Amino acid sequence: MTEKAQFEYLWNKIKERARQLVNPISYSTFIENLVPEDVVNRKIVLKAETELTAKLISTSHAEKLREAISTADVGLSDFIIVVDGSEIYTLNETPDALEETPVVIDKRYTFDSFVVGTSNKFVYAAAKSVAEAPGENFNPLYIYGGTGLGKTHLMQAIANEIAEKKPSLKVIYTTSEKFLNEYVDSMYAKKGAGREADSRFRNRYRGVDVLLIDDIQFWAGKYGVQEAFFHTFNELFGQHKQIVISSDCPAKDLTTLEERLRTRFEGGLIADIQPPDVETKIAILKRKALEKRYVVPDDVLAFLVKNSDNNVRTLEGRLNTVIFASKLHEEPISLKLASTALAESINTEEQEEVTPENIIKATCSYFSITKQELLGKSKRQEIVRARQICTYLMCDMLTLPLVSVGKLMGGRDHSTVIYTRDKVVELMRVNDAIAKDVNDVRSIILKQ
Questions:
Q1: Which regions in the chain score pLDDT beneath 50?
Q2: CA-CA distance, 332 to 295, in Å (whole number)?
Q3: How many CB atoms lie within 10 A of CB 33?
Q4: How far apart are the C-alpha atoms of 282 and 301, rounded to whole Å?
């Protein structure tokens, strides 16, 4: 595929989404006739015919066009409008150097901190075996299961274990989104500081001893990155280097991935994480409570588990609500206190479904900021705090993949979402003001 054809392919995917988001007259007048010229720093460069058209797109239609770009799943984050001969609408952005910034691995994600039950003991044993002898036992290891069941915990536990026990090995843990973004950067960063990006991308991922990639299902339909990973996979596998992959479904169900990738996944060990049973849920909550230095009575733990879904993060959110209520009212944790604290969230059948827009709207209202400020890049302390709390509540109240949460929060990546979520959890434990803010915003959401 030529460079021009690549630009057109990306733009056609974006236009499909824009057609659904922009009213038909505006779409045909302003969006449809834009011409893709380049990609710089994951921004698509679009040429308009006149400065007037460029101005209207940059003002009246910018938000919808950015939404189309972020939801088209093409690895881009924004757009730049240019007009031939214009001094205002001209390309004045140069490619960034391709930075090899690793995804942050949470040191708390260890095998010791993973609660083992009947639903996950097989995958736990497989992960332990891989960590003890990378490239020797099961290669590749393919882990799959629903949201919030512990896939990321096990992936990072493998990385942490190898880093501690075999420090001479080079280990990369990354997300499918970051791998995709780096691949896109390497494709188009052919000028200036990024001119060697393509070879640096290949060398980065083919020169490791252990490669772990999380949430690979998000490559569905993205054949360029699948091609890149196919060659990376073959190179590592041929050298007996360990590959670990996670997904939300079995490899055979990834029908939008190329068959040659699926067959390679199926050639290793496939291990699934089943939803936890009641006993495992209680054990998980007991472990979480002890990490927060709280002792929660067994009857309260059983109450928190009752009628809950299988998402561990949702369970932890319930526990956090009860702990906050105990601190707020200066009462010991009891069944009565827990029942009162969770009254609103337990009676979900009487409430309308919580949506991402509900959470964003409630956060903006509580902190008196605009949606643009919340989802933007402002570093003002109050906006950063609002953004962190909104991200946490997205993770806590919705059963969305972390990659999807990142996109909803202004195109932030998977690792940023993990870091933010965990930071808010920690802040709630030690800072009553933060805990109050979180619960006040939650109350607004539930009352909408």
A1: 1, 98, 191-195, 346-351
A2: 10
A3: 12
A4: 6
Q: What is the model's pTM?
A: 0.61
Asked if residue 24 has a cis previous peptide bond (ω within 30° of 0), the answer is no
d(CA 201, CA 143): 25
**Structure token pair of residue 225:** 């990155």
Sign of the torsion angle spanned by Cα atoms 239, 124, 219, 415? negative
H-run or E-run covering 213: strand 210-214
Alpha-carbon 87 to chain mean position: 38
User: Token pair for residue 340?
Assistant: 């009162």
Nearest-angstrom CA–CA distance, 299 and 293: 18
Q: What is the C-alpha to C-alpha distance for residues 26 and 431, in angstroms, rounded to an integer?
A: 48
Q: What is d(CA 432, CA 429) in angstroms, rounded to the nearest whole number?
A: 7
- Token pair belonging to 131: 């960590």
pLDDT for position 311: 72
| Structure-token pair, residue 286 | 């007991």
What digits encode the pLDDT tens for the residues 114-128?
888 888 899 999 999
Give whole-number Cα distances, 433 to 17, 31, 65, 368, 429, in Å.
41, 46, 37, 17, 10
**Lookup result for tokens 């509900």:** 358
pLDDT at 143: 93
